Amino acid sequence: MWNDFVTQFWPSTIDGLTNGSIYALVALGYTLVYGVLRLINFAHSEIFMIGTFASLFVLDWINISGPQTGLALVGVLLMMLAVSMAVSGGSAVLLERIAYRPLRKRGASRLAALISAIGASFFLQELFAIWQGRDQLSIPRVMDKEVLFNIGSGQVRNDKLLVVVAAILMMIALDRFVNGSRLGRGIRATAQDPDTAVLMGVNIDRVVLVTFLLGGMLAGVAAMLYGVFFELTQYNVGFLLGIKAFTAAVLGGIGNIRGALVGGLALGLIENYGASFFGSEWLNVVAFSVLVLVLMFRPTGILGENLQRARA
Amino acid sequence: MLLEVEDLRVHYGKIEAIRGISIAVDEGEIVTLIGANGAGKTTTLKTLSGLRRVTSGSVRFAGEDITGVAGHKRVTLGICQAPEGRGIFPGMTVMENLDMGTYARKSPDHAADLDRVLTLFPRLAERRKQSGGTLSGGEQQMLAIGRAMMARPRLLLLDEPSMGLAPLIVQQIFQILKEINDQGTTILLVEQNATQALQLSDRAYVLETGSVIKSAPAAELLDDPSVREAYLGGAAAH
């Protein structure tokens, strides 16, 4: 066990960071919506799933079935990214309009919204199962996977590096937006005190819309990266990943944007270290043990709530 | 009249919290609503800011019917409120909180507003970078009023600005309210401990269980034995 852990340390670290980056991007969607509406958007995993299909479809449309290089590769990646972000972002906005806003307007309880979320999740999964079948679909390889350099015994592959770098860039962009733009201020104000935000002229409906749009777009980025890295999708591809991303959000402190990054990377590392220690079949057990332990001993997560910070 | 409220009714679920209130505030006045807990003072202010839906009746502001106007649009019309409990955004700095007052303006050319607010409340200038949640109660109240002033309101709504504050600070804050009013902002004030509020005000309404039971110039209410008994702690007011 210990020896496996030591020999696998660097490979586990690299895989942990890669998986963790995808968790973190999806976790942001949970955290943003929770921060503003105090709602766990359980259909967020399906927003991710829809993004993976968007990536698959776009490759189909532009007729890409093999690895690209140079500018063509950049073009294909950007196109997958743009379409996945647009489709996932649009789906998230639609989801809010159909499944949540009517309830919110009638002052329904959060429990009702939660049930609506679970219903929307099943609906979307089954929709894709009926439309695209229940089998796993492979996403064509768009880039040759090459080892760029080694860290210890770990090989840093180009697609893994792409995942981590893209995720970090998105995090920085989001942080800039939330802390630097006018609408970002509106989001923070709503998260901290919705009534007073209205008194200051914040349009809550618009804030909620933008929040879902942002979360959806980030899930779209995650979906595109997932497609490039794992090269497959399925109607239920969001299920396990969604729960893990939610775990990551709780681990980092739900409602906390930087917490989602920390939580995602931490979860990715912990489950991969755990897998190298106990064997890879234990990976998910380790991941969800983390969720239980966090909820037991530090329910506010590593960084605690921050988007609203100690809201009365 | 700057603000005219006519026969306003507001429900909280099935309970009628406001039962046909009519009040008016003229440009340049300071008007106070006094009354016990649960009299409907806070609900009235929330309704004026568009946070509560009106069952019946009307609210007119500067000659325009705003009864159905969404809350976030009322700031632009010229109504801003420093709410009950101050409503400071705890995770934002003092400056960020003040900036929120200019949120409704698309082009926040607020250097002059900031100057004015920091002159009224020099304390806020010292605390500029501190986060709102770490301020003392008095400082938070100053921030709440300053933030509302950043919106350049024609009508400033204040919900219990004296709540939980030491008498000396209350005096200081009321002094500043007088200054704000002298500079041309109309003020509608809600207070439970009303002596100081009445001394500051031109007129006042007494609310009881969702209705106006008395309306008179403030000086008159200060001398009214029944009002003094019920709302001014009984003792001589001046």
TrEMBL record, chain B:
Pfam families: ABC_tran
Gene Ontology molecular functions: ATP binding; ATP hydrolysis activity; branched-chain amino acid transmembrane transporter activity
Entry-linked PROSITE patterns: ABC_TRANSPORTER_1, ABC_TRANSPORTER_2
Keywords: Amino-acid transport, ATP-binding, Nucleotide-binding, Transport
Gene3D superfamilies: P-loop containing nucleotide triphosphate hydrolases
Residue ranges of every copy of the ABC transporter domain listed in the record: 3-234
One GO term of the biological process aspect: L-amino acid transport
Tagged with keyword Nucleotide-binding: yes
Superkingdom field: Bacteria
Family: Belongs to the ABC transporter superfamily.
Protein name: Branched-chain amino acid transport ATP-binding protein LivF
